[in-house]
Design a protein that fits this description.
binds acetamide; two-stranded antiparallel ribbon; 8-stranded parallel barrel; TIM Barrel
């Protein structure tokens, strides 16, 4: 019995050692949401500098969301003429966007610092700003505006031909700007109520033999994924994308916790772990920082220091599917550069050390 115990202990130690043998994860990411609040080119360059000082090698740039579309797309100029601006509750106009020239400069600067920028165009939810710019993208009629409040919005992209034409054009320009092997296409928090009431979606479901609204989401994501594959790019999607099925080449970014990542790694998919209880830097780090929103927990630095994207419940081979980890900085409650650094540091330093033991 005692021998068996020692044997198991030895095996476990060896397994843990082999899982930690690689000193640096291949993917060491930091994210920034520039949709909820916009940060200009100079701030982004400083953000890149700071990431590079802490072993981060991927910058996940969350460029589109309900409250703002932040990247110039020449074929669809209203995305930034209309979608980059919102009227705040006090009546002021708020917004901004990056011109393609600025994006090129930022991408080049990041490359000099050994950072690859992964752009995110969030589909098919979190798309109110795109819909306000081009209402044909929606399944519903009525007035469309760029929202000035936070949350999850029901108006999402409608899977019609015209929407795919739009998305392919957006992806053409995104791919021309970003040499990244990965493009993030979102897939998180997609309420299906607008699809349930749409005749066009019913017709699509019949035609394509889709038997659930999750399959409709998969239909959209996989069409965009296939399109991006023809350009030699792989897609990263948030964990919810697993619900409707994904392709073998999809990379899952697990954010609600580790569950989606574990499920994906078991299926043999590659995974980036960004579990919110450890990796959401918009959540306060200390009790002195008041929680600005009910959905937040505390993400103390000690937790970040201990972050290991690999999981005990996965075997060594499954753990090999975990490319690395990422922390996110959502900006609903981050509206100044000073607040941005406050949220980022020193947790970014802890993240860099956790992902790259030098
Ligand atoms: C997310 O936090 N909605 C990915």
């Amino acid at each position: 019995m005692k021998r068996l115990f020692i044997y198991v202990l030895l095996l476990r130690t060896l397994q843990a050692w082999s899982q930690d043998a690689n000193p640096c994860f291949e993917y060491r990411g930091m994210h920034l949401d520039v949709a909820r609040h916009f940060f200009d080119k100079e701030v982004i360059l400083r953000y890149i500098d700071t990431m590079s000082q802490h072993h981060i090698n991927y910058f996940h740039w969350h460029l589109t969301d309900d409250q703002g579309w932040r990247i110039e797309i020449k074929q669809y100029p209203l995305l930034t003429e209309t979608g980059a601006w919102r009227t705040e509750k006090n009546g002021t106009r708020y917004g901004g966007f990056y011109t393609q020239q600025e994006v090129k400069e930022i991408v080049q600067y990041a490359a000099q610092k050994n950072i690859t920028i992964v752009p995110e165009i969030d589909l098919p939810g979190h798309s109110s700003a795109a819909i306000a710019s081009y209402p044909f993208l929606s399944c519903t009629k009525g007035e469309k505006t760029v929202p000035n409040s936070w949350g999850i919005f029901r108006d999402i992209l409608c899977p019609r031909d015209s929407t795919f034409t739009f998305l392919y054009a957006v992806m053409d320009e995104v791919c021309a700007l970003f040499p990244s092997p990965y493009i993030h296409i979102g897939g998180d928090e997609v309420p299906k109520s607008a699809w349930k009431q749409s005749k066009d979606v019913s017709a699509l479901m019949q035609k394509e033999k889709l038997n659930s609204y999750e399959s409709v989401q998969h239909y959209i994501m996989s069409r965009i994924e296939s399109y991006l594959q023809t350009k030699g790019r792989r897609c990263i999607m948030w964990g919810e994308a697993l619900r409707g099925g994904v392709s073998d080449s999809t990379i899952i970014m697990s954010w609600r916790g580790r569950g989606a990542g574990i499920q994906a790694a078991r299926k043999g998919l590659q995974v980036i772990m960004a579990p919110r209880f450890t990796c959401y830097f918009d959540y306060p780090a200390t009790i002195q920082d008041k929680k600005p929103a009910w959905w937040m927990t505390y993400t103390p630095i000690k937790k970040v220091e201990r972050f290991n994207p690999r999981c005990r419940v996965l075997n060594a081979q499954q753990n090999q599917n975990i490319l690395g980890g990422e922390a996110t900085l959502w900006t609903e409650y981050v509206n100044t550069e000073q607040q941005l650094w406050h949220q980022l540091l020193p947790r970014l330093e802890a993240l860099g050390k956790a992902l790259c033991k030098q």
